[in-house]
Amino acid sequence: MTASASNPFDSKDILDGIRRWVEIETPTDAPDQVNRLATLVADGYRDLPATIERVAGRDGCGDHLIARSSWGQDAPGILVLSHLDTVHPIGFIDRLPFSIDGDVAFGPGIYDMKGGAYLAYRAFRQICADGARSPLGITHLFVSDEEIGSPTSRVLIEELGHNAKYVLVTEPARDGGKIVTGRKGVARFDVSITGVPAHAGAKPEDGRSAIRELANVINTLEALNDLKRGVSVNVGVVRGGTRPNVIAEHAHAEVDARLPTQADAEEIIPKILGLTSRTEGVTVQVTGALNRPPYEKSNAGAALFEHAKTLAKELGFDLADMVTGGGSDGNFTAPFTATLDGLGVDGKGAHTHYEQMYISSIEPRTRLLYRLYQTLL
Known about the structure:
Layout: H1 11-22, H2 31-44, E1 50-55, E2 64-69, E3 77-83, H3 92-95, E4 99-101, E5 104-106, H4 110-130, E6 138-143, H5 154-162, E7 164-169, E8 179-183, E9 185-194, E10 198-199, H6 210-222, E11 232-240, E12 246-247, E13 250-259, H7 262-273, E14 283-292, H8 299-315, E15 321-324, H9 330-333, E16 338-340, E17 347-348, E18 356-358, H10 362-375
Parallel strand pairs: 3-6, 3-7, 7-16, 8-15
Antiparallel strand pairs: 1-2, 2-6, 4-5, 5-18, 9-13, 9-14, 10-12, 11-13, 17-18
């Protein structure tokens, strides 16, 4: 892996490294593929002053990888959070091959988030090449299951986060390069309704429709939406019934809630879990919980952003911040450790057939990560 002697942050060279990661397809449900990329990532650290720990995958997910600098591990340092999995299925690269068109590079997962994960790795390589160690130790965690809510990595993320002084998340930048300093909490629920079946024509009075009760439930859930506060409750999946001439015995819904603050979570979640039937003879059962806690902009997180903003100014660009509704692994660490998210590449189209990153964002974003490693105390 070479870099220009005159510019170790050369965009063309770094993009070539990103291409190699992108061309290994890594949907979460293909652990062998995720592990293949994890091996390539681990190989990139072999010649560096770093140790590699590989945590075996479980429950159908791939391995997690922890790269630790050989210095600074006796005190709280910098934790970098990245994920290797993508949402795109195997074979999607035939539809969206790695390609370049002017300032745009395309490929599955290039924006979310192989580009950002690779930038953080390259910034670490440059710290090592400089010979002058960063003031704090650096730990880079690559997980295999972020796109499905990090079920097998959450404990590891929280453990490493508790032991860190700062957390840097390489999720992609938003809206023209904005850093993320807040994310809504994410809660997921399953609603199961059981009614009484009957012949819809001969004996409708004997039936109790689970689908009709589901309509009541949906109206109740929709009433919880408060866009002014940023609270959203979405019934995204519904199913029920067997035939048009049978009053439905069963109905089911899957629900997503986005909650800006912990106070919102404490208000809304019990209301959803406490849903009851309005119809005699029909039962409503709700299961679910907060999958990712709200990532609120704390004082420590705000100070970390201001530091990054100053560094960006020195590098010649303005850095703005924003709050987004999407969750990330930063949600798990923000409640207790200063966390800065959205440090990856700029681009657009995450999870789509046109996912892309802007090549012009490579050098400034890599330099910013490098300077954060250099200056965080």
